[in-house]
Amino acid sequence: MKRLFVFIFMLSLSISLLAYSFFNPIGPALLPAAGLYSENTTDLTKDYWRTLDEAQILALKQQADFLVLPVAYGAELISKGFEYKLAGVSIWKSFYLVTSQEVNSIEDLRGKRIVTIHSPGQTGDLILKMITKQKNINFETVYVSSGADIIQLLATGKETMAVLPEPFVSLAEVKTKNVFTAKMDLQQVYAQLTGYPAMIPITGLFVSNKVPREYAQKIIDRYEQSSNKYFKDEFDKSIKFMFDLMDGKMPDPVLRKASQRSFIEFGKDKEIVLGFLKILKENGAISDYKQDMFF
Questions:
Q1: What is the per-residue pLDDT for 205?
Q2: By three-state DSSP, how is residue 285 classified?
Q3: Tens digits of per-residue pLDDT, 98-134?
Q4: Most exposed among 106, 130, 270, 286, judged by the fewest C-beta atoms under 10 Å?
Q5: In the beta sheet, which residues pair with residue 86?
Q6: Secondary structure string (H, E, C) spanning 152-188
């Protein structure tokens, strides 16, 4: 019996040592990953990161074999020598202009004051810069540290217009009882300014170069199944998964509204991704990217 116990222990230890690691951020990117995290498997350990600094350390030390990141951030890390490849994109739509005012076109933004989140390569800020640069429409952009802080400014009447990603867009609507609503789809603005489809590669799955290609493809396929099938077929479970991990900070109705307004689907359109990265570089949002960054 003792020998059997030792054998089982050593076997389980060897399996755990062979397991690869998957890290996902706490936030909207939980939705396409919900199915993968619900799997009861021994070949893949699953954990989370909460700040970009944490994510960078995971990538630098290659502690994450599979790492979900903002596409722009991951692309820049690869350009700096980080040994990862982009396997695909799972979130393509998330940014909106939220205001209590009437806005029918980008011309209506002239002379306004717009608050947005200050973070590296932030998509909303990029589009605001493009509007000014390409259409010569000037407005004041004010940077705030977080989406939650922006919502507080809107709710207290200190600000009247903001560019936000989901689920903060839906949270702003709920918190202000629809005094503030999404008045402009920034993906549509991006398409108008660039000629690309109204899809922005926001969040992607990156794979460490040290992972055997055959195994990496199996995990990519499972993530794709999670994003494209589990999220749709098990929508309530996906929402509960995100709600629980965010400790209830985002109410259930907010998460439901946000997920329905976002576009979640795993895929890899190199032309769209490279076009977006080119625009980011031209506008100084990232320093560089590699053409061969794809898995």
A1: 98
A2: coil
A3: 999 999 999 999 999 999 998 755 899 999 999 999 9
A4: 270
A5: 206, 294
A6: HHHHCCCCCEEEEECCHHHHHHHHCCCCCEEEEEHHH
In this structure, are residues 138 and 132 in contact, taking their beta carbons and an 8 Å threshold?
yes
Neighbours of 112 (CB within 10 A): 17
98: left (phi over 0), alpha (psi -120 to 50) or beta: beta
Tokens linked to 235: 């929508």
- For residue 169, with 0-12 CB atoms within 10 Å meaning exposed, 13-18 middle and 19 or more buried, which class applies? buried
CA distances from 61 to 58, 72, 210 (A): 6, 20, 12
Distance CA 210, CA 193 (A): 39
* Bridging pattern class, strands 84-93 and 44-49: unpaired
Which runs of E-coded beta strand occur in 16-153?
20-25, 44-49, 66-70, 84-93, 95-99, 113-117, 140-144
Q: Are 195 and 203 in contact (CB under 8 A)?
A: no
Task: List the one residue out of 167, 190, 178, 183 whose CA is nearest residue 243.
Answer: 167
Amino acid at 26: I
The answer to whether 276 touches 201, Cβ cutoff 8 Å, is: yes
Torsion of CA 278, 279, 282, 286, to 10 degrees: -80
User: d(Cα 50, Cα 98) in Å, to the nearest integer?
Assistant: 25
Instruction: Please state, in angstroms and rounded to a whole number, the distance separating the CA atoms of residues 243 and 247.
Output: 6
224 φ/ψ angles, rounded to the nearest 5 degrees: -60, -40
Is residue 41 helix, strand or coil? coil
Helix (H, G, I), strand (E, B) or coil at 243: helix
Tell me which amino acid residue 294 is: F
Q: What are the residues whose beta carbons fall under 8 Å from the beta carbon of 137, sequence distance 6 or more?
A: 106, 107, 109, 110, 131
Return d(Cα 119, Cα 169) in angstroms, integer: 17
Give the relative orientation of helices 252-261 and 235-245 as an angle to the nearest 10 degrees. Answer: 120
